[in-house]
Specification:
seven-stranded antiparallel sheet; single chain; 2 domains; globular; TATA-Binding Protein
């Protein structure tokens, strides 16, 4: 109702309208900003973008390819945009900030998610690529070809009431106390627990698991709704394979979590 988020559907090669998730829209905007600055010769020497810790790392790869740093923050734009002042003091030029939940901070002057400016950016991008004979769908496929075939999925479990809140707490405690060594046949190579903070990220009840097949997932309780939220990401040899691998990992994780009473 307050127009702070933005989402789109794109027509694919068969004429079907496909809704994009927040990560995919982010890829398009990140690419447009980077490519636009480079072609205009205005790409800053110390450019920086910011994303949440549960947002796809594909945009990090994209930014780094242009010599732009991608910083991470906890979810929410008080955290994402909260990093801007210190980065500006360090001589960085802020270019863009976003998170997977279709929230975008398009300008250093708009330090919160804003659907209007995000919509303007996407419209600009559509016009920019149309002059090149491309649709945004074409560009998204090109990005997958260039940076890798990523898949994204962000399911959640709704557990209402006091009993639900208590069960979510038990789920987080159980996962934290029984860290898996493998998931869906893939080895867990690294776990980041943000409960007491990690590097320059403040403390938060979030767990992040990295697998040995270019996949990772995260879990956290929602801070505003009766939900436990999951974020699954993978990069594979094709989009079809990425979607299949991501679904396999999601199924395995949700089976473990649903068994926790």
């Amino acid at each position: 109702p307050d127009s702070d988020r933005f989402a789109i559907e794109l027509r694919d090669d068969d004429g079907n309208y496909i809704p994009l998730n927040g990560n995919q829209t982010g890829y398009l905007v990140v690419n447009y900003i980077l490519e636009g600055h480079k072609s205009a010769g205005t790409l800053p020497k110390k450019g920086v973008m910011i994303k949440s810790i549960v947002t796809s790392t594909m945009s990090t790869v994209m930014a780094n390819a242009y010599g732009v740093e991608m910083y991470e923050a906890l979810t929410g734009f008080k955290n994402i945009c909260g990093r801007i002042p210190a980065l500006l003091e360090q001589g960085y030029t802020y270019l863009f900030g976003y998170e997977e939940s279709v929230g975008y901070a398009a300008s250093v002057d708009i330090r919160d998610k804003d659907g209007i400016s995000a919509g303007m950016l996407v419209a600009e991008a559509a016009a920019y690529y149309r002059k090149q004979g491309k649709t945004l769908w074409n560009v998204l496929q090109e990005l997958y070809e260039k940076y890798g075939f990523y898949a994204e999925d962000e399911p959640n479990l709704v557990l209402e009431g006091i009993a639900g809140a208590e069960r979510i707490k038990r789920m987080m405690v159980s996962i934290r106390n029984n860290l898996p060594t493998e998931v869906a046949g893939y080895k867990v190579e690294k776990v980041i627990d943000y409960l007491h903070g990690y590097e320059d990220i403040p403390a938060s009840n979030v767990l992040r698991f990295y697998l040995d097949n270019d996949s990772w997932f995260a879990v956290r309780p929602s801070g505003t709704e009766p939900k436990i939220k999951f974020y699954f990401y993978t990069k594979q040899a094709s989009r079809k394979e990425a979607l299949a691998v991501n679904a396999k990992i999601k199924e395995a994780v949700l089976e473990i979590v649903n068994a926790i009473e």
